[in-house]
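We emphasize that the prediction below concerns an isolated chain of 319 residues; any contacts that depend on oligomerization or on bound cofactors are therefore not represented. The input was used exactly as deposited, without trimming of termini.
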Amino acid sequence: MRTLDDAQARAVRAEESMGTAMVQGEEGVRAEAGALTDRREFVKELLAATGGLAAWMALRPEDAAAVPRAARAADLLDRPEPYPEGNLLERMRADLLRALQKPVHERKWVMVIDLRKCIGCKACTVSCIAENNLPPGVVYRPVVEEEIGEFPHVRRRFIPRPCMQCDNPPCVPVCPVGATWKRADGIVEIDYEACIGCRYCITACPYNARTFDFGEFYGEGTPEVMDYERRPAFEYGKKWQRAPGRDGSPVGNARKCHFCLHRIENGMLPACVTTCLGTATYFGDYNDPESLVHQLVGSTRLMRLKEELGTEPNVYYLV
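Result of the prediction step, given as a token string:
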């Protein structure tokens, strides 16, 4: 009888232990479910506090433009807003045509170059040479390459460097014959008929933006210089024929970028702007608060080269 009583007692204790374990297991499941609910509520609150960032990231590219600016990443805050048709070139051309309706003295042409988008392809350099029929040694828009860091963490940065069209241009006061001056719209101009080739302006420019036309041709040393090299260049509202010793020829004169003034005045953007593969160059009238360049110049990531010299350049860089 004692053995039977012991067995029954052990069975009762086992049932009690199993019941306790089941209760504890149910409580654990409820606790885990509660924790999961708490986590879900936390995520919901987080998304609500961040303006639905996860939902924004799931949008299609064409819907991204509808997201409030506050929900975008910090490095996108200074990117230009898309034109209704989604084409920045069309927006800049609309800005240009609007500016041409104003008197010259009410315009201020500026250029903004996004160094984050420049890939160093030099398409702008080539298009500038072709547009202005530039000879050997004359470059209006070189691309400077800069190496940053040390191996193995090395990268390259490309800096297009046109004429800065400074508000206080050092090249102007040094000219002994007054052959260079600043126009009312901000572009610094050269009169090839008045220039005597002293090169004082080339020395005075802190940006090395001026070069000298020595009268060379790419076809020199060949049986014949091709006709395309002898084509006249359209600069500063005139047609200039390159011929050594000829009055009004660019040969023997200083030369530089002029923002493709001949194109601007005919409602076309500068050649470097339209050929940039990454759309890294922007151009327009800074005095127009609705223009793209006016928007970009307000960026906190903007810089100008050698500002400490007081030249007040009108070419800005986004970094």
